[in-house]
Design a protein that fits this description.
The chain is mainly alpha-helical. It has a two-stranded antiparallel ribbon with strand order 1-2. A hairpin with a 4-residue loop joins strand 1 and strand 2. Helix 5 packs antiparallel against helix 7 and helix 7 runs antiparallel to helix 8. The two termini are 21 Å apart. This is Odorant receptor. Keywords: Membrane, Transmembrane, Transmembrane helix.
């Protein structure tokens, strides 16, 4: 299960950090003008994203509401924009926790049962691929809708709804700037260039949080499945595939000590003495088994506590 960690999340987190969306605060050892400018640039990006969302919601509520079908479509668009902004803020405010969670999943997961690990690794990959395809198709559908030629009737309706001179010029994200016709050539070009950045950031943040949640759910399911196999063994004699008695030293890594079934027989010939020695050996074996069962239960409990920590990190 160690290879099931969301490497794409770490990759996108690194990108968000390098472009100044997260972790851009000035460090005590970097209080120079470059660090201050980098911090201001980071705040500017967040302000730009908020302004675009406010502009989008305002356009939806104040202009698109004049036509019900257009309003429903733009409301759906605004909801996705709001979710994207929320994911961006989560990535910003909980960046260290996200990195810690990714590191935990990369280094602390059990890979004891290869069959179960491969099963849930495959399930996670399919889920993430489906999630990525959903985002790609949704973005492509929105872009196709914006680029699709409009009929004269549609243009006339949009001109009435939005009150613009060139309603056929549609932005990727519907925006409204008071006293500005966003369809005029220069306005259209500038807004079109600016809206690309917050849209891309919101999409990357949404993908990061979505992948993290989906992967964690699959990881926990696989880890609890592995844990269940060890819980079932509590109170039972543990053996390997050859039938040898084993004593687990680390269930998370499937490490154990093998004790062969056929032990060396005693060379004592006296029957009474031999029976007495066998009785003592059985008592020692019983005491050793009791101690081992306590140690085994502690390993199971420690494994479960680690999964609880993983659940806590996701909250």
């Amino acid at each position: 299960m160690a290879n099931i960690s969301p490497a794409s999340v770490r990759f996108i987190c690194d990108i968000l950090e390098h472009i100044g969306m997260v972790n851009f605060q000035v460090k005590p050892i970097r209080e120079d003008w470059k660090a201050v400018l980098w911090q201001l640039f980071g705040y500017f990006q967040h302000v730009l994203a908020v302004l675009f969302l406010v502009s989008n919601v305002s356009s939806t509520l104040c202009r698109s509401s004049r036509h019900v079908p257009e309003f429903c479509q733009r409301l759906f668009e605004s909801c996705f924009g709001l979710i994207g902004l929320m994911c961006t803020q989560i990535a910003y405010h909980r960046y260290d926790e996200i990195k810690s969670l990714v590191h935990f999943m990369e280094t602390s997961l059990s890979n004891a049962n290869k069959e179960i690990a491969n099963k849930y690794k495959k399930k996670a990959n399919i889920t993430l691929f489906a999630f990525l395809l959903t985002l790609v198709f949704a973005s492509a559908a929105n872009l196709s809708d914006k680029l699709h030629p409009l009929s004269e009737k549609d243009i006339a309706e949009l001109k009435i709804i939005y009150g613009t001179q060139n309603p056929e010029r549609r932005h990727y994200v519907n925006v409204w700037i008071p006293y500005v016709d966003e369809t005029l050539s220069w306005h259209y070009a500038v807004i079109h260039a600016l809206e690309f950045w917050p849209t891309l950031i919101a999409g990357a943040s949404f993908y990061t949080i979505g992948v993290l949640v989906l992967t964690t759910i699959t990881v926990l399911e696989g880890q609890y499945t592995i844990l269940r196999t060890y819980v079932k063994k509590i109170g039972q004699q543990h053996t390997d595939i050859q039938g040898n008695t084993v004593y687990y030293t680390n269930i998370e890594r499937n490490k154990y000590i093998v004790e062969p079934i056929n032990k060396r027989t005693s060379s004592v010939k006296d029957a009474a003495l031999k029976a007495k020695l066998q009785q003592r050996e059985q008592q020692r074996e019983y005491q050793r088994q009791l101690v081992y069962e306590k140690l085994y239960f502690r390993q199971v409990l420690r494994f479960h506590q680690k999964l609880v920590i993983l659940q806590t990190k996701v909250r």
